[in-house]
Specification:
Layout lengths: L5 H32 L1 H35 L5 H18 L3 H11 L1 H24 L34 E2 L5 E2 L1
Antiparallel strand pairs: 1-2
Length: about 180
């Protein structure tokens, strides 16, 4: 059975609270705006932001797909276009969800300047640390070339074996040496 680490449980709780908090804030903001503008203009605003947002997602998606194809054709690893594609999928989901808060989050994810900042932050704080921990340091190049990491079984001490380092003499049960 899978046992989650305490850090993952805390992160999971935070994500769940955020997922429950966003619709609540969205609903409260819609009620406030509907009281200020009226019901029909508020519904029209929500529909209009969804339509404009989806047009932007479509245009940015084409641009991102073009960048991805160019990088693959030149033999580069298309990490940035792939992350942009994922952020655009999330932007589309936020923009299709009725509400002004989700539309604002969707617009942040679809506009290139803010998407660049979000992509850099995700790489720095989420993607690289997770990949680095799962690959033993190969993503950032923080690998061990000799010895044991974190002290290991030897306690982190370096032992000089001298010139006799590879001469192993194993004795059997009768005390005779075998080489």
């Amino acid at each position: 059975m899978y046992q989650a680490r305490p850090g993952k449980l805390v992160m999971l709780r935070r994500v769940l609270v955020l997922l429950l908090l966003i619709p609540l804030v969205d609903m409260l903001l819609l009620v406030y705006v509907a009281g200020w503008l009226g019901v029909v203009p508020t519904v029209a605003l929500v529909v209009l932001t969804a339509l404009i947002g989806m047009l932007l997602v479509r245009a940015e998606g084409r641009h991102t797909l073009r960048k991805l194809q160019e990088q693959v054709a030149t033999g580069e690893v298309p990490t940035d276009p792939l992350m942009d594609g994922g952020l655009l999928i999330a932007a589309g989901a936020f923009l299709l969800t009725p509400g002004l808060v989700t539309d604002a989050i969707g617009f942040l994810l679809v506009l290139p300047p803010s998407r660049y900042l979000i992509r850099v932050a995700l790489k720095k704080w989420v993607v690289v640390p997770v990949l680095d921990s799962r690959s033993g340091g190969f993503v950032t190049g923080n690998v061990y070339t000799y010895g044991f990491p974190d002290g290991g079984p030897g306690g982190g001490e370096t032992v000089d074996l001298g010139g006799e380092a590879y001469d192993i003499d194993i004795e059997d049960d009768e005390g005779k040496g075998n080489a």
